[in-house]
Write a structure and sequence with these properties.
Blueprint lengths: L18 H4 L15 H12 L10 E11 L2 E10 L5 E6 L20 H7 L27 H7 L11 H12 L7 H5 L1
Antiparallel strand pairs: 1-2, 2-3
Length: 190
């Protein structure tokens, strides 16, 4: 439960998951559309967690998970690092859910010329995790690389988001290898 620390939300945006699939044991409030907007989802999650928030440990990092067995049955032993005071805790649980944090750490590949480009206009190169509002890109030339869900968020602004599959691999491979140069900043800024 890290929503205050990492608010992955767009304004305005719709959630990319059908409401019935993301509601837990309590349904969304009556009147919530099938594709709830970001504000509704962000309100639902903390409201849902109110009864168990005292069990959540913020600023703790799991460093080891191992299955154990006792006379009364199996359990999971966790070693957890408290990031506030750097102490290691040993905790036991009946179940363990592994979430790999795939979207927690941003991966930005090294592309020839991209650092110079970022120095000229730092906001023109943006990882989707930091995307909040497409209006800042309105009437600009946009090159979108990545998952198509973000492209749908930008459609109402007529941002052209290229659907990538084989073409993505071919074009990006040429950029990374230096066989295809990025256009100069001046050309893209007009």
């Amino acid at each position: 439960m890290t929503w205050p620390q990492f608010p992955a939300r767009f304004t305005p945006a719709w959630s990319q998951t059908y409401r019935a699939l993301c509601s837990l044991t309590r349904p969304f409030p009556k009147g919530t559309p099938l594709l709830a907007d970001a504000e509704q989802v962000l309100k639902y999650i903390p409201d849902y967690g109110k009864g168990v928030l005292h069990l959540v440990r913020f600023r703790h990092q799991v460093i080891d998970v191992s299955a154990k067995r006792q006379e009364d049955g199996p359990y999971w032993r966790l070693k957890v690092l408290n990031l506030n005071n750097r102490t290691v805790l040993s905790l036991c649980y009946d179940a363990a859910v592994v979430s790999n944090g795939r979207y927690n750490k941003i991966y930005e590949p090294s592309i020839p010329g991209i650092d110079d480009w970022k120095r000229l206009d730092p906001r023109s190169v943006l990882h989707s995790k930091r995307f909040r509002d497409a209006k800042e890109f309105e009437a600009k030339h946009i090159f979108h690389v990545g998952h198509p869900n973000l492209a749908f968020v930008m459609l109402h602004l007529r941002v052209v988001a290229f659907p990538f599959a084989e073409s993505q691999v071919a074009v990006i491979a040429r950029v990374w290898s230096g066989r295809l140069r990025l256009p100069p900043y001046e050309e893209m800024a007009t």
